[in-house]
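Here we describe the complex-level prediction in full. Unlike the single-chain runs in Section 2.1, the two entities below were treated as one system.
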Amino acid sequence: MSEDQQDITEEAAVEEAEEDVYSLSARVLSSILFAVDTGNRTKLIELMEPLHAADIADLLEQVNAFDRRRLILLYGAEFDGDILSELDEGIRDEVIHVLRPEVLAEAVRELESDDVVDLIEDLDEESQEAILSSLEDADRVAVEKSLSYPEFSAGRLMQREVVMGPEHWTVGEAIDFMREAEGLPEDFYHMVLIDPKLHPVGHVTLGKILGAPRKQPLVELLEPGFRTFRVDESETDVAYAFNQYHMIAAPVVDEDDRVVGVITIDDAMNVLDEEHEEDIMRLAGVGEGSLADRVFDTVKQRLPWLAVNLVTAIMASLVIAQFEATISQFVALAVLMPIVASMGGNAGTQALTVAVRAIATRDLTGANVWRVIRREVLVGLTNGIVFAVIMGIVGIAWFGSPALGAVIGAAMVINLVIAGLAGIGVPVVLERIGVDPALASGAFVTTVTDVVGFFAFLGLAGVVLL
Amino acid sequence: MSEDQQDITEEAAVEEAEEDVYSLSARVLSSILFAVDTGNRTKLIELMEPLHAADIADLLEQVNAFDRRRLILLYGAEFDGDILSELDEGIRDEVIHVLRPEVLAEAVRELESDDVVDLIEDLDEESQEAILSSLEDADRVAVEKSLSYPEFSAGRLMQREVVMGPEHWTVGEAIDFMREAEGLPEDFYHMVLIDPKLHPVGHVTLGKILGAPRKQPLVELLEPGFRTFRVDESETDVAYAFNQYHMIAAPVVDEDDRVVGVITIDDAMNVLDEEHEEDIMRLAGVGEGSLADRVFDTVKQRLPWLAVNLVTAIMASLVIAQFEATISQFVALAVLMPIVASMGGNAGTQALTVAVRAIATRDLTGANVWRVIRREVLVGLTNGIVFAVIMGIVGIAWFGSPALGAVIGAAMVINLVIAGLAGIGVPVVLERIGVDPALASGAFVTTVTDVVGFFAFLGLAGVVLL
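The structure predicted for the assembly as a whole is:
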């Protein structure tokens, strides 16, 4: 790209960003980097002031390690704990080590307990220590208690501050209680009603409390469809329930069904977001990775998947090797064989992706799996016949051999039917045996379609053409 | 699978469902179908009663069309409007036509205006008419007004009921207002403060209102980071902002900056969910589809993508055809060539997926694109060298030819570097020219890696081996 062209695209980027919801425009970004370059702390703080912590985290992820370090040091004590929470795990450790200890301590002390837990659970031990030791005793105990719950559990996800009241309270009593309470949580949407044993009996939205007369008993205002989660329930199930049932908040209970915390929608959204991300990445054979990772980390994430693919590709080659004699007599076979395999791979990936998603959203169950398999086979058959006709014609037109056209057509039908079967069957079987279908299905399915594709095409060719 | 085995997996499914957050277990499902079979309406209603509308929608999606019809007719007037909202678009039309007109009218009348809009915007005209005519005049006008905003805009997404108050109010005035107001929305989380011209000046959470003394002015309790959306803003931007800034609700304003509605987190989550789904499906070359679609619809969704793939596969074959003479002398080339192409395709898909996600989450910007490209090239180079060594050894061991080993190794390095470049370059370019990168990148990138893979491998072989 010439410099002129680059200028134009940068201008376009600025214009685009301006009409955007996103505060971190290209212009703001370059102004910030200029302030860092010139060591202008006042200007830097002025530019960063309107940015949300999530935007500042994005900013730190987008610049290189050198600028990141300079920016953080210049920003100094302004550095907010929320920025750490929003930062990609890949560079959190790095940022924590750059922060001066007193800035780190101050930043962490502002956070709520669930955010501190979320922040430190993936850090290296040294960073964990640095953060834990900066907390006040009570907070440290709370965080350590949360960390005692299994990873990816409701217990890790919840915040410990819950707004609760006894079940016999009226609206007026609830309002008086809240008005006098000190340190209500930042965000809460319900009052949870409990019986004398601390068991939850339901919850009332703040809207209902505000809309009702002072004398009305709270139990008359309980929300329908009240749900609680156990501390040891998986965060996947929690996130699924929030999404499926459009929940805003739900209490978390311990093994004796006593309320110990509350999960709010922002926690659930984070989990959903991470899981979507994970699904996409796993389907593509990319481990957990982000743009901020260094070359070495990225290689480490991707190499294993490529190694698996190499093994499957070699298996396909072994199939081809069985037909060397056939190929040496008809080199046209070598020209056409990748088409059959490629179409099978694509059709298999289509069926597979639909199946993996349907399993994740729990739309594919024992009740409809046979119907879905039947459908995939029929879809494969139909698409197979369509492309068999097309490739038959291409085969005849290109190589002047009706027999070759017939062979590639037949191989296409076989491979697309098998692709449909494998695309649905592999993830379903993996799920049953407890393996994440998104993780391993792709390699299995393309192995099947490669092997079947080459075998059907070259095998049929050996029989028909020789 | 033998019947015994099937029994065991079904039992396992039931057990699994029981410890699950999900109310629609396999056992409940079969009991419901049994009630439908025996025409036992009382039993059916009893079984359906604890289910959330979202679960009933899932149930209707999972059974076949015949059972679906019988179930809906037996369920009769119990059919709730929320079920329609939750139903997959693929079978909404079908269900609406099965419902008796008076049941449909009653079901729709219960819904809030934004849900009606969401419900009917994708229906065929006949169903739209059926629903609109069942609404009361005021509601119909509101729905038609919403439908006048562009599709996928904030105007379509918002609900029109907003809890607002003048900016000079105190906490006490707000509470008194809400207590006397009739028809407060089902779910609301803030009071929006407006100036005399209906312009929004900020909003206060209900929690803050409840926690403050009656005399305190609301303006002192305004939430930081207040944002509004314009009616014509895209729902994608809205959903992005909700996710990025952890928002719960935000007012929507018209072109004169007057408040006309409010968007809540459940609407934003729906959009996010649909877009994630779309990204995954598009990356896999599957159009909008669901498990409930019939064979014909599924074929129609998938065929175009397979056709695109066929064209790209034929292009790769044309490259191979240039080297027919080389292949006929060394059939080993035909055996090994798919390995180079397949590794390139996989590496390209990895880079591509990371890039598409990074663009969607706005982590890949003008600020870091060159750094990311550099990284992908280095990653491709590193992985290429690793697999070049492995394949070199395999080539020598398998075919006893060091020259062949060197050729496949060199081709591997070239193709993996190109794969990294194409994987990041194609989506970035598509995004710049306004095409959804998730939609088209896959086909482009694998075409590049196939063509480069075959060309590099066979071309080098022709030079080195002949």
